Amino acid sequence: MSVVFYWHPMSSATPIACALAELGVAHDRVRIDIRNGEQRTPEYLAINPNGKVPCLVVDGTPIFEGLAIHLWLGDRFGVARGLWPAADTPERLQALSWCAWAYVTYMAVVGRLRLATSDDALRDPRHAAAATAEATQLLDVLEARLAGRQWMLGAEYSLVDLVVGQVVGYGTYVGAGVADHPSVAAWLARLQQRPAMQGEV
Q: CA nearest 12: which of 66, 51, 58?
């Protein structure tokens, strides 16, 4: 199988770089300089019409959007490596639910918080306060999930931890802190000690 990973370091491609490292998937890397607009060149748009990173090309067929890539990697490589639950198990249903929760529900709130606090044109203390309050409520949900658990699915690390943790970690960067959620904070600290999180991604 040929896998080509289009990426830029310290970007939304970072979680995919970590997943590839965790899974030990052999791949080639093509760096797309998003600061210089390479993601908008006709050559790259022919691969990924969304004009963003990450993107994988698997045996000539592109797959883009981080969540889609994570789910494919989990299904294709993760089950065999014990890092993704098998199909038709209760754990698989939980994995799908929490990954979508992170990328869809929580990321939407984090995105609003980022715009309300860091974008000069959209900076608005009221919107920032509302987004912070909503993020806190969602972190309450995650805190309840992690109470008494080492990892999202139980006693063992899985790609679900990587997916959810990357979004929660980004949230802390833009102001959705986890200090008031001790189980989340401890889990995030464990996750950040994973070897795959330590390399240049």
A: 66
pLDDT in tens, 127-149: 889 999 999 999 999 999 999 99
Name the amino acid, one letter, at 129.
A
Degrees to nearest 5, angle at CA 87 with 83 and 89: 90
Verify that 99 and 177 share a domain, yes or no: yes
Q: What is the pLDDT of residue 111?
A: 94
97 and 28 in a common domain: no
pLDDT at 119 > cutoff 70: no
Q: How are beta strands 3-7 and 28-31 bridged, if at all?
A: parallel
Domain interval for residue 189: 90-197
- Count of domains forming the chain: 2
CA end-to-end span of the chain:
22
> How do residues 59-95 score in pLDDT, each as one tens digit?
999 999 999 999 999 999 999 999 999 999 999 999 9
Which CATH number goes with the domain that contains 26? 3.40.30.10
Is a pLDDT exceeding 70 seen at residue 164?
yes
Domain CATH for 118:
1.20.1050.10
